[in-house]
Design brief:
This protein is an all-alpha fold. The chain has 18 helices and two strands.
Length: about 375
């Protein structure tokens, strides 16, 4: 282990901003833990179907405030995307080559997921599994992948949106919600928020890359202003308290993103900016940095296969001949939550097996030293000859 830590430390450029990688790792792990805690597969008359403790215990909603960390991921994505594009232009690299490089890194590990799950679904159906069960499991695997489509689209649009002020997409979300909830506009109209909602933290990340978010005052303004706006929307405007989708609720804050989830994302972005200093100090320790670097090297593998890991544990427990608390039972009591917490290490072990099997699709060929995530200098300075 000491040799591994030394190799990671020696391979890291001295000017790499390790806090950016830490924020990405925290965002991915937050989403994974959030899904494991608020997603349940319930056995009902031999059929598995999806459920959520938030459906039965609304007071459990604060869990979604902690683990719904997508805004931080888009913040980091905007920062890294804007900086990498500035560096590519400084090297004389054209847009097409830059975009291909970014898309290969993002989408290469995705290709194996439909192959594996097509085989798995066909095998389950051929062995007599209930169609509703197979449909529920496939939906559980595929539903988190919407975020990759949005992230890929925003990455491709980086040259156009890198200097867009976040207030513009925020205004689009506000107007869309006014039409949606105030004038009963068709639900399809609200789909514009899928792009506009996540464009807000992405544009904040691009502004961060330009050196415009370096003051702690900015971080506190985003944190306190976003938190106050979210509280007002939940308490007085009727928005759901949960920042994720909840089965049975007429309105979801996440599908499509509402104004509440966007203002909540602003608060998260402010907290992330305030954490940069403490994270940089903590990651001077080689062991802490090695852990963060390892998660970043496999971030997409972790995201793509975490639901499969949970499904594998659930199916294994069911085939063992029992309905286990926290795994197959209805998530309607605090006891279920405690039982689910006990299952998290088992999910993590299953995810580790998936990581061993599929990490090669993400890591591919060894890369050269990164010139993107640098500490201190804004992106515009990287574009100078």
């Amino acid at each position: 282990m000491r040799d591994f830590v030394r190799r990671i430390e020696s391979a890291t450029p001295a000017d790499r901003d390790r806090a950016v990688d830490a924020l990405r790792a925290l965002a991915i792990l937050g989403v994974v833990l959030g899904h494991w805690l608020v997603t349940a597969l319930v056995v009902d008359s031999g059929t598995l179907h999806g459920s959520s403790p938030l459906q039965y215990m609304p007071r459990f909603a604060p869990v979604s405030w902690v683990f719904q960390t997508l805004a931080v991921f888009f913040l980091v994505g905007g920062q890294v995307g804007a900086r990498s594009y500035a560096c590519a232009r400084a090297r004389g690299e054209n847009y097409g080559r830059w975009l291909r490089t970014r898309m290969v890194r993002l989408l290469r590990p995705v290709a194996v997921v439909p192959v594996v799950w097509t085989v798995a679904a066909c095998t389950m159906l051929a062995s007599g599994a209930d169609q509703d069960t197979v449909r529920a499991l496939c939906k559980l695997v595929w539903s988190p992948l919407w975020f990759l489509v949005v992230f890929a689209a925003l990455t491709a649009a980086t040259p156009l949106v890198a200097r867009l002020h976040p207030l513009w997409p925020l205004s689009v979300v506000l107007i869309t919600d006014l039409y949606r909830f105030g004038l009963d506009a068709p639900d399809g109209f609200a789909r514009v928020n899928v792009a506009a909602g996540w464009l807000v933290p992405y544009c904040l990340g691009a502004a961060w890359a330009r050196g415009e978010l370096n003051s702690r005052r900015t971080g506190w303004t985003l944190l306190l202003g976003g938190a106050a706006a979210t509280a007002a929307l939940v308490l007085w405007a009727g928005y759901p308290a949960a920042m994720v989708g909840v089965p049975g609720l007429e309105v979801s804050n996440l599908d499509p993103p509402t104004l509440a989830v966007v203002t909540f994302g602003l608060a998260q972005c402010g907290a992330a900016l305030l954490l940069l200093g403490p994270l940089r100090r903590m990651l001077r320790r080689p062991a802490a940095w090695a852990a963060v670097a390892t998660v970043n090297l496999s971030a997409m593998t972790i995201y793509l296969w975490h639901q499969t890991a949970m499904i594998a544990v659930t199916a294994t427990g069911l085939s063992a001949g029992g309905t286990l608390p926290g795994l197959h039972t209805v998530p309607d009591t605090p006891g279920w939550v405690l039982a689910r917490l006990a299952w998290l290490p088992v999910f993590a072990a299953a995810l580790l097996i998936c990581w061993v099997a599929f990490r090669g699709y993400e890591q591919g060929r060894p890369r050269g030293k990164s010139t993107v995530v640098r500490k201190g200098s804004p992106a515009r300075s990287a574009a100078r000859p």
